[in-house]
Amino acid sequence: MGRLGEAAEIAEAIAFLASSRASFITGATMPVDSAWLASGAPEGKLPPL
Q1: Within 10 A of 41 (CB to CB), how many other CB atoms are there?
Q2: Taking the chain, what is the end-to-end CA distance rounded to the nearest angstrom?
Q3: Residues 33/6, Cβ–Cβ less than 8 Å
Q4: How far is the C-alpha of 39 from the C-alpha of 47, rounded, in Å?
Q5: ∠ at Cα 40 (38, 44), nearest 5°?
Q6: Which strand (E) or helix (H) includes residue 7?
Q7: What is the predicted pLDDT for the residue at 49?
């Protein structure tokens, strides 16, 4: 995607994880980074603006 996330996009992920729909998710790391890390980008480095 090559962009930073909007606050509403992050809030949706938080709302899902806090809901009963995520009750079966335990001990998992779920990056909400528009596939930044999955594409091989180094941790700690932001995508270009």
Answers
A1: 13
A2: 11
A3: no
A4: 11
A5: 95
A6: helix 7-18
A7: 66
Sequence spans of domains, the chain: 1-42
Q: Which of 29, 37, 28 is nearest to 1 (CA)?
A: 37
Give the distance from CA 17 to its chain's centroid. Answer: 11
pLDDT digits (tens, 9 = 90+) for 1-49: 667 778 899 899 999 999 999 999 988 888 888 777 777 777 667 666 6
Q: What is the gyration radius of the CA atoms in the chain, in angstroms? A: 13
CB–CB of 22/14 below 8 Å?
Answer: no
Tokens standing for residue 39 = 């594409």
